[in-house]
Amino acid sequence: MSGKRCLEWKISVIVPVYNSESYIRECLASVLNQTYRNIEILVVDDGSVDRSAEVCEELRKRDRRIRIFRQTHCGVSAARNRGIYEASGRYVFFIDSDDMIHPHLLEALVMRAGIYDTDLLFCTYRKVHTAQIKRMADRIKTVYSPKKCRWEEGERSDALGWFHEKHSKELSCIGGKMIRRDRIGEVRFDEELSKGEDTVLLYRLCSKGMKMSYLDEGWYYYRTYPESITAAQGKRVTAKDFGAYKIIRAGEAEKGNIKWALIWEYRYMWKLLSEYLVFKTKKDKKNSRILKQVTEAERSHPLYGMLPVRTRVLFSSLYLGCSYVPPVRGLWRFKQRIMGGKEYERFDLGNCSNL
């Protein structure tokens, strides 16, 4: 396909907004400053009660590529679904209201899509603290050189392998993903899920078979800030928080893909234990009790029994150690910091890979 013809494609950038007045200006500025200009920016205000709407309206008056939609507070999934409904571009691109993107990202993705007729394109992401944002301004003003970009291509038959293993980190979140709109079809974000709704959507798309292109550049800037961590720690945990793991695990088990079902069983158990560790360390009795019940119930699941014996022994030891031996909690937290939360990627299926 002609690289010049793709420059005619409109890209619909979907931005769900909820009480983001502190960050939405920087987010939208990073989109408006893209070197690829043929875009529409669909801001879906999900019932914000701060000045988010005013900031967005101010920017809309300056640049008519911004379109604003308002709805009562229904959650981020409903906001993204509204964005998909309103989109008119050949591709849709997702960015969260507190994140930013490199000025050449959309240009790079569109040019690649024009060459390979790709269904889903994405780059890796870089975590940045709010204090780092302004210091990064000069660093990201680099000249885009297609020859210097490192790309990897995947056929539709490779999609699930990329999702489950090869690029599981990047394909666990929707930020920075550019997806051909007609390939999304009727797939939508699950509005019943409180967490992991973007992972489930990407799983369902990959299950259809998606031709993908991966840009090995950290051009999506994922913002981390103290208030988000504090808010998360104050919430009441529920079994629904882990619904994404169950959906993906069950989906692969039903298709007979036991290898990938076991990978998600492992990740689910690791997530439960990690959350349990946090709440136990903070002496949060309510959340600790809930997670203890969920973890004990999961240990009776048939797929858990199919994990290698050494893996089950590890889980049991950590579970009991974190419950009753404070030094174990300290050692595990130290290991998590050193490993950067990547323990699940080291999972060895052992003899289970042939099941």
Can you give a write-up of this model?
With 355 residues, this protein is α/β, with parallel strands linked by helices. The chain has helices spanning 24-32, 52-62, 76-86, 105-116, 159-166, 181-184, 197-208, 226-233, 243-254, 258-281, 285-298, 302-305, 309-324, 326-339; strands at 11-17, 39-46, 66-71, 91-94, 100-101, 120-129, 151-154, 178-180, 212-224. Residues 341-355 have low confidence and may be disordered. Helix content is 45%, strand content 16%.
Classify the secondary structure makeup into a structural class. alpha/beta
Strand content: 15-25%
Q: What integer is the average pLDDT?
A: 86
Question: Helical stretch count?
Answer: 14
Shape label: globular
Q: What topology does this entry show?
A:
Blueprint: E1 11-17, H1 24-32, E2 39-46, H2 52-62, E3 66-71, H3 76-86, E4 91-94, E5 100-101, H4 105-116, E6 120-129, E7 151-154, H5 159-166, E8 178-180, H6 181-184, H7 197-208, E9 212-224, H8 226-233, H9 243-254, H10 258-281, H11 285-298, H12 302-305, H13 309-324, H14 326-339
Parallel strand pairs: 1-2, 1-4, 2-3, 6-9
Antiparallel strand pairs: 4-8, 5-9, 6-8, 7-9
Helix pairs in contact: 7-9, 9-10, 10-11, 10-13, 13-14
